[in-house]
Amino acid sequence: MSAPAASEKRAGRPVRREPSARAPLSKASTWEYGLKSLVAKAGSVRVLNLHGIAIGALDDQDYSDRPMFIHPVLNRCVIIKHNLPLGAEDKLAPRRFNSTKVIFPFDQNDLNIGGQSLFIGQSNFTGALSALLNYTDLPLDRDVEVLLAMDRLPTLDPFLLREVLIKQQLDVGRCYCVLSESDKVEMLTFVAGEIEALVRLCFREADKSDERSQQFAQLLLAEQNSGGLEPLRQIFRMTEEEFSDAMFCWKAFLYYRWRSQAAGDALKLTLRSMLALSAGRYDRDEAVLIIAAQEQVKEAVGAAWRQVRQRVKLYDQAFAALTDQAQPDAFRAFLSRGTSLFTELGTQIGQMEQVVSLWTYRFGAVRRMELSADDVLMGLRDLLAQIVPVSAPPPLAVLT
C-alpha cells in the first residue's frame, strides 16, 4: 500500500483508488518528462493541474459529484497550452501555436516519472483518447466536449474556463476552477495594495492597515469563503450563495487587473519590436505589404487594448464608489452583474498575451534577420488572427 493510501486508512477515511494511467506508449501519443517541475512553476494561464486539484479536494463533495471529466484518469491529468517554435514542429500537434496538450501521469504519487500526452484536435483525437483510456460505459462524448471547449480558449485561467463551461451547460464543481499556488503567491501583495482603501474604511486603523490588508487579501484569495469575510457579506446584504458568486467575480477582476499590468508592459515591447522590423531589405512590393501588415497589427492591438483598459476602468469606478463614497450598493450591483464583463476582459487579455507569445516564438531576435518576406507576412497574419473582436464594454450605469 502506498504511503498516502496507508495514511488515509489510519485516519479512518476510505481509500480512494484511481485506475492506473500507465499504458503502452502508442504512436498517437508522446512521452513527457519533468511534470513535477512544470506544475510547480507554471501559472494558471498555461497549466490546469487536475492532479494537484485531486490531492487538495479529498474532502470536497463537489469534486466527485460534479467532476471536470467523467473518466477518473482524465480527471487527474495535467493540461497545458503548448507552443512550438519554428523548426520544432510536432507531427501530432494540430497547430504550432497555442495547442492544448493533455498529459496522463504514469504514477499519481510521483510526477517525476513522467507521463503520456495527446494533443486535443490531433488526427483521430477521439480514437486515440478512447484507445488510451478504457471508457467502457462512461460517456466519452461529454469528456471530449469539455476538452474541445478548453482548446478553443486563449488560456486556461480558472475564471474564463468556468464561465465558458457554464455557458455550454457543462456542470463542473468550482473546486476545479482555482488559481495556481504560484499565482496566489505573486498576487498577494498586489491584492493587498488594491484593497487597502477598503480596509482603512472598514477598520480606520492606519497604523495596522498593511497587516489587515495582507490578512484580507489572503481571505479573498482563499478557495473557500471564510467567516472572516462575513462582515462584508452583511454590508452587501447578500445570501451566502450570492456572496460566494460575488467573491468569485471580485477575485476574477483582481486577477485580470494583476495580469493586465504585465501584459501591458510586454505588449509595448512587442509592438516596438514589430515596428522596428525593417522592410527595407525586401523588394519594393514585399516591403509595401509588410508595412501595411505592421500597421494593421498595430491598429488591431491598440483597439483591443483600449477595450481592456475601459473594462478595467469600469471596475475601478465601481470600487471607488465603495471606498471613496461609502456606497456599497454600487459595487454590490457591479459584482452581481459583472460576469460577462470579466469573461470578455479575460478573453482580451489572453489574446494580447498570445500576441506577445507568438511574436517571441516566431520572431526571436536572432531569427528576425533570417526570415523571408513570406515568413514575415505569415507571422503578421498569425498575429492578427489572435485578435478576435469582442463586444464593446457597456457604460458603468448599465452595470450598477
The string of secondary-structure elements, in order, is HEHEHHEEEHHHHHHHHHHHHH
Rounded to an integer in angstroms, the radius of gyration calculated over CA atoms is: 23 Å
Beta-strand share of residues: 5-15%
The global form is globular
Query: Can you give the helix content as a percent range?
Result: 55-70%
Low-confidence stretches: 1-25
Describe the structure.
- The protein has 400 residues and is mainly alpha-helical.
- It has two domains: 18-178, no CATH class; 224-399.
- The chain has 17 helices and five strands.
- Strands 1-5-4-3-2 form a five-stranded antiparallel sheet, sandwiched between helices.
- The longest helix is centred in the C-terminal third of the chain and has 40 residues, at 284-323.
- The termini are far apart.
- Residues 1-25 have low confidence and may be disordered.
Brief summary:
This protein is mainly alpha-helical and 400 residues long. The protein has helices spanning 3-10, 35-41, 50-56, 61-65, 125-132, 140-152, 158-167, 181-194, 196-203, 209-221, 230-236, 240-275, 284-323, 328-337, 339-362, 373-386, 396-399, and strands at residues 30-32, 47-49, 78-82, 99-105, 115-119. Strands 1-5-4-3-2 form a five-stranded antiparallel β-sheet, sandwiched between helices.
